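Per reviewer request, we include the raw input and output of the structure prediction for the construct analysed in the revised manuscript.
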Amino acid sequence: MTKSSGGAGLLALLACLAVNAFYLQTSFRLQFEPMDYGGFIDLAWRFLQGQTPYVDFLYHAGPIFPLTHALFIKTFGLGKSAVLAHLLFTSSAYLLLVFWIARKILPVKITALALVLATATFHWYYPFPNFINDAYLWGIAAAAAVAISLPFGNSRRAAGSFFLCGVFAALSCLSKHNIGVPYAAAYFAVALSSRLRKHCLLGYAAGAGLAFAATAVFFIPDLAAFYRNIADYLGEEERRWLNFLPLSALGVRHYWQIALVSALGVFPRDRKYPELLALVCGVTFVSYFSHHTNTVKQISHLPLLMAFGLLYRAAADDDGFKRSLQFRAAVAGLVILGLAQTQPVMAEIVRHRSLWRQIYTHRLQAGPLSGWRSHPAWGGPMDHFLEKIKREVPVGESLLLLDKMQILYPLAERKSYPGVLFHFYLPGINRSPAQRQLMREAILAAPPDWILTGYRVGALLFDPNDARGFRPVMLPFDELVHVFGLEEFLLSRYKILDVYGKYALLRRIDSETPAA
């Protein structure tokens, strides 16, 4: 059987790495979103400023992603270089793992196909560092730890492989739980399926336990606060967790069709490969579940890769099966399904690029983000108020951003206001009275000297009595001000110093230091 470890497979890998780097380098600056992109940078900034996660600021996932992004900012500086470096690291590592899994068993053509599909759909769909892609990276690393070691020659090899699998599965959980937890469950099922299950389970538990314990000791200073942050978010997002249950949702991205074709393709030989069959089913469930519980519908080609691995592993042990119509039909079916799941995503990427050029017409002026395209409705005000803050807000005075523009904290090199959330999951805050109360108390206990917020803005407010769930309103300030019940507080304690577009800069009336 032809394998991919030779020159042709390596050339395919290098070509995909080069194309991926070129695409990301030329595309990642086409849009800058204040909430998602700016929020992620502010999140890493808070870690770098020494704020205590889950206490000084609320965050609904584990600390691995923001710590990783903070490391890139620390190394490459705040701005475009750190973002591109993180993008290239994550996507290149993902491609290397795809190649590492494929190289020992898949032929060059199938390896090249897997690499091309992964290249075009991993980070191109969402060209900014985020916890979804990082969680998928740790998830495929866990799969690789097991897949490249099969079949296990002895109990020590089985335990060692699952030890690494447990470490990576835990890191995926601590990046984004609705991706990592299903991965952890899937790999637990793979360990159970093995004939060496005792050693697999012991290794898996040891690796996962070590990763969780080390993260808790060094990066989660308050476990109770960590639990509250996660639990509150799960309560807010309960509707998402039911999206994957209807039968009508089964066809998404052809995930289950891929698993079915590979299972039928190796039947009745499937009992000889319990770990690989469990891997196919496990990562298929993860991909399906994560699709329905994420707002960003990141595609995963790991089910396709594992399905090919199962087929070609069976063919490696049976030349007659490799020449059979059953095998060839299954391979052809997987190729068709892989292309079918990729085509709409690629079409969406092309459509997004065209749309971005039409919508994001303002080029940011801020040094670290200079030239990055943004929406003029917030990009112009962001540039305006950044200069205003640098010029008129003394460094020693407190600044609170009650808006999506969290990026102004790191750009102005100001301390992020403690006790108030990183802005990413604002829509869910309406359903969490406990979180709203915590943040309201943090603001009232130490009123900031300055506040930047939305001004005379329209919003959709959550209304349990409305059949639509939300109702449109016009608010004097940003939706956060309304959600926290702070309109009267701002009107009585602050004066508006500057208005630009839909934003206003407010100064506390009784502040001791006069405005510059």
